[in-house]
Amino acid sequence: MTMQRCEEMLIQNPPCVPTFLVCGIVCRARRTRLVVDWHNFAYTLFGMKRGDASATTRMLKWYERTQGKMWGDAHVCVTKAMGNFLEKEWKIEGARVVEDRAAERFREAARESTTPLEFWRSEPARSALEASPVARSEDALDRFLRGTHENMTKNKPRFIVSSTSWTPDEDFGVLLDAAVAYDARKRAKDDHASKSYPDIVIIITGQGPQKTMYEKKINELALEHVAFRTVWLDAADYPRALANAHLGVSLHTSSSGLDLPMKIVDMLGASLPVAAMRYDVIGELVQEGVNGVLFADATELAAMFAKLLRGDERLTLRALKHGAAKWGEQTWDDHWKRCALPVFADAA
User: Fold this and answer.
1) To 5 degrees, how large is the angle CA 309–CA 313–CA 316?
2) Has residue 189 got a pLDDT over 90?
3) CA–CA separation, 130 vs 142, rounded Å?
């Protein structure tokens, strides 16, 4: 059996072991041009587990730098900061920035969005909520779905969605602490504005190693005005969940400080404004006051909830939603043709 020789091969990094070496050798032997798509750095992810100073991490960094430079004929990356790093620190020149963009189905979900109540009452979304290990009878979400919540028409509960792979690079303790702080503010008798704060529902989607740990912590919280659900949604319902929410939350901080979370790309693609954890390059994606807001800790996040979700701040949230929709107008297919295709056309 023989395989037709391809003109070019595109590989994504990470992973780089043994990808760089194996694909590099094969491409040279078959006279194929190798294009490396830098999404992050493998050594920084490994360093989160073993430590940045470990011998294995330092060896992996050397391998990733030298082999990427040796075998890559062309390079693309996801942020301007990453392109600058590759050029200045690793002497890999000419990396073209190709930002991640959402698939067309997220824009379609935004166009077809209805209301959070209608979406989460429908199947299979409602079954996902009921199966959640943190579901509670008679909490704000349960009452809202059954139509017995005290605010079914005015100042209705606001829906927040966050997605995660439940890994150590996202500290969901920040979200839990923000929920506790918001709940305390809503219950405060001496805060005259507390009555204008809506109940909030926080939906967390995804699977991962720390999921059970955080579900246990959520079940230990004594909350009156905040309801949590952890769910798993299929590829068809996930965009709809984003499009029918009021605010998205990202706790991603990046192992390298140079990549951007795909979850925010999906949220903006579904016209959902985002509250994102602040770190060096996040401004390349989330423009504060335009398509989202940034926070540094639980206190700031709770303040964002109080500011953005109350009824008299509808115009602010609507403006952020407009900014998110504007960003999401360009899909992955559009962006690929404009920014990535020239990398391959240059070789033609």
Assistant:
1) 100
2) no
3) 9
